[in-house]
Amino acid sequence: DADRKLVAESAGEIGPRASTLVPVLIPLLRAQDPNVRSQAALALGNIGPGASPAAPALLQLMIDDVGAIQA
Predict the structure, then answer these.
(1) Residues with Cβ within 8 Å of residue 53, at least 6 apart in sequence
(2) pTM of the entire structure?
(3) pLDDT for 14-63, tens place per residue?
(4) DSSP code per residue over 19-69
(5) What per-residue confidence (pLDDT) applies to 61?
(6) Chain-centre distance for alpha carbon 20
(7) For 9, which DSSP code?
(8) What pLDDT sits at residue 63?
(9) Under a CB-based contact definition with an 8 Å cutoff, are residues 16 and 48 in contact?
(10) Cα distance between residue 46 and residue 19, in whole Å
(11) How far apart are CA 15 and CA 62, in angstroms?
(12) Using CA atoms, how far apart are residues 70 and 52, in angstroms rounded to an integer?
């Protein structure tokens, strides 16, 4: 998971120019490690509008997290 977290962190640092990595980041939103999920979400946010294909996965992550908190 350290490698996947590093990929997400690096993409986030690159910002909008990392939009080609969006397809790589989307599956990281479903990682078991919450740190990987968090870094992937942050990276997508830093990528900005170029990360719009990740919107459904981000929405699902929010729904899942709220359900986990309510359980």
Answers:
(1) 22, 23, 26
(2) 0.86
(3) 999 999 999 999 999 999 888 899 899 999 999 999 999 999 999 988 88
(4) GGGHHHHHHHTT-SSHHHHHHHHHHHHHHGGGGGGGHHHHHHHHHHHHHHH
(5) 85
(6) 14
(7) H
(8) 81
(9) yes
(10) 10
(11) 22
(12) 28
Q: Distance between CA atoms of 4 and 52, rounded to whole angstroms?
A: 21
Task: Tell me how far apart the alpha carbons of residues 12 and 40 are, in angstroms, rounded to a whole number.
Answer: 8
What pLDDT was estimated at residue 65?
62
At 57, list the tokens.
């996965």
Amino acid letter, 32: Q
Please give the structure tokens belonging to residue 25: 């980041």
Distance in angstroms (rounded) separating the CA atoms of residues 26 and 58: 8
